[in-house]
Amino acid sequence: MVSVEQATLARLSRDGLAFEILVDPDLALRFRKGEDVSIENVLAAQEIYSDAKKGERVPAENLQRVFHTIDIFTIAKGIIKHGELQLTTEQRRHFVLEKKRQIANIISRQGMDPKTKTPHPPNRILNAMEQVHVNVDPFRSAKEQVNDVLSKIQSIIPISLESVEIAIRVPIEHAGKASSEVRKIAPVKNEEWKSDAWIALLEIPAGMQSEIYDSLNKLTGGSVEVKILKEHKI
Length: 234
Fold this sequence. Notes:
Elements: E1 8-14, E2 17-23, H1 25-32, H2 39-42, E3 49-51, E4 56-57, H3 60-67, H4 72-82, E5 84-85, H5 89-110, E6 111-112, H6 122-131, H7 142-153, E7 160-171, H8 175-185, E8 188-193, E9 197-205, H9 209-220, E10 225-233
Antiparallel strand pairs: 1-2, 1-5, 3-4, 6-7, 7-9, 7-10, 8-9
Helix pairs in contact: 5-6, 5-7, 8-9
């Protein structure tokens, strides 16, 4: 159990009331991510506060009214899972960087340079994010933040999100492995199994074309046929 002096705050607001607990920052983050961590070890103090700095505790009747229980461990679990979790400086730095990388990978896969019709590498996108001082939320999903980031970095690099609809034709001797591999990457919109080939229709992020083509060429020894049918703005 972490000492109170080394603990950080987890906070949840409901029905106009504040509920705060003091937690081990590392264990609380692991608990929030779904790891098997004992809530007893997460808490620095077995108390629910209205103001932890002042040591003011929440009355039992307020706990019962809002959480329908006065069990501290049950309430603490809810606060950690659904509330605001204060991160240490090192934790925030790590998770912000990881979230930026996730966002850059999404943009690289889905985005294209509209002039060259080629994807921007993730590092180029990360550099653009640094240049315009993009702020990301370590607790929001990367997908939710893509559009906000795009609107900022488009002043640095030309980029648009696009998808392409492609048809592929794989010789029947490679069809089983190719079908399995393709389904790991993108949903199959339509398919047809013939005596000599597997034919499938896919819609994929434009930036993933090279990845899919390379994978299919390796699986089929270069015998796959690919045709671009449509391009869409996302």
